[in-house]
User: Fold this.
Amino acid sequence: MGNSGRIANTFKPIQVEQRFEESGMGRYERAVKSSLKDANYLATGMVEQIGADLRRREVKLQEIMRARTDAAQETLNEVASVQDAIIAGSTEVKRSLDKAQKRMRRGGNREEMADQIIEAAARLGELKKLHEKVIDKLQAVLAKPPHAVEIIEDFTSDILKMAASWEASAREVDESISDAVDQNPPAEMAELQTELNTGGYDLILAGNQRDPESIAASQEKISDLIGEGPKPTI
Assistant:
C-alpha cells in the first residue's frame, strides 16, 4: 500500500460534538445567555416606554380635544337657543298674519291688514338680523384654531417623532441579539488550525517517507480534513 493509503488509514474522522465540547461551548452558552438577558431587558424597557409615551400623548390629546369642544359649547348653546327663539318668533308672526288675513276676508279693512303686513315684515327683518349675528359668532368660534383635524395632524406628527426614538431602542435590541454569539471562529479553533499547519505534523504523518511528494501528500491530507483545500504549488 502506498504512502497515501497509509495516511488515509492513519487519520480517523474527528467527532464534531466532542471537539465542540473541548473548544469551550460553555463560554459561548454563557455569552448567549447574558446577551439574551440584555436583549429581553431592552425589549421590555422599549415596550414599557412606548406604552408610557402613548398614554402620555393620549392624555394630552383628550385635554386638547376637550378644550376644543368646551370652547364651542357656550356659543353652540347660545346659537341653539336663538334658533329656537327665531322659530317661535316666526311662528307667532305667521299666526298673527294669518289671523289678520282672515279678519280682512270677513270684512275687515285693508288698512289694518297693511299695518299687519308691515309689522310682520319688520319682525322678520329683526329675526333675520338676529340669525345672521349668531351665525357670524358661531362661524368665528368654528374657525378658531386648533381644529380637530389639526389636532390629529399634530398628534400624528408627535407619534412619528416618538417612533424615531422607539426605532433606536429597537435597533439596540437587534444589536444585542446579533451580538449574542461571536460569528468569528473561536480562538481555540484558530490556534488548533495553526498548530496542525505549522507544528510539523505533516512530517510526523509522512513517517520515514521524507521525500517532497510524501510530505506534500501529508500536508494536503491535513488541509483536506481541516477544510482548507489544496495548498498552491510553489
Residues 1-24 have pLDDT under 50 and may be disordered.
